[in-house]
């Protein structure tokens, strides 16, 4: 099978959910954020926004805000997480990137997904672990959560479509073997 550096980066990327305390450098963070700006986006409008948080206290407070919002949910799984004292939606990563966009266009979420994937792959190429985080996307309309993320720089007219936890994986972290699922590829000639 043919391969190259880009294909190997895609094949070897894994979601990392256990991080050591080492912070992502400003230089590496800037490169990862810039990679997000090069993602495909509808009509080239680039209406997205990336808010990177490296302040541990702010991250802990964000997690508490999300947990409080979960306690108000009708979903039993979310409610359970909201009451779990050990739950951390960002897996204690030292950096979290909040990806938001104007909900004006039907493709706004897709633009954010492309940007997150670019950042995911850029992080992996730099030896930095990453994990896609969805919890803020489902809680960002809670008034308390909304007020807090606005204080973190998320524009008031934006919806959060996803987040990216970033950090360095703990030593000897077991990784699941990836397998291509049967029947998901179809080629019409």
């Amino acid at each position: 099978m043919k391969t190259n550096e880009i294909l190997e980066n895609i094949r070897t990327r894994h979601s990392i959910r256990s991080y050591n305390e080492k912070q992502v450098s400003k230089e590496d963070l800037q490169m990862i954020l810039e990679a997000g700006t090069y993602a495909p986006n509808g009509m080239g409008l680039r209406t997205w926004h990336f808010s990177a948080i490296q302040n541990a206290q702010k991250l802990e407070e964000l997690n508490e805000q999300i947990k409080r919002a979960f306690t108000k949910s009708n979903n039993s799984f979310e409610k359970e997480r909201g009451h779990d004292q050990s739950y951390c939606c960002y897996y204690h990563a030292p950096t979290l990137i909040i990806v938001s966009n104007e909900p004006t266009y039907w493709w706004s979420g897709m633009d954010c997904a492309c940007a997150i994937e670019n950042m995911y792959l850029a992080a992996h190429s730099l030896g930095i672990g990453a994990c896609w985080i969805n919890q803020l996307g489902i809680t960002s309309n809670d008034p308390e959560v909304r007020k807090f993320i606005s204080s973190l720089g998320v524009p008031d007219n934006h919806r959060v479509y996803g987040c990216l936890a970033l950090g360095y994986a703990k030593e000897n972290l077991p990784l699941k073997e990836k397998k291509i699922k049967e029947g998901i590829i179809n080629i019409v000639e």
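The CA atoms of residues 45 and 63 lie 31 Å apart. The beta strands are 49-53, 95-101, 129-133, 159-167.
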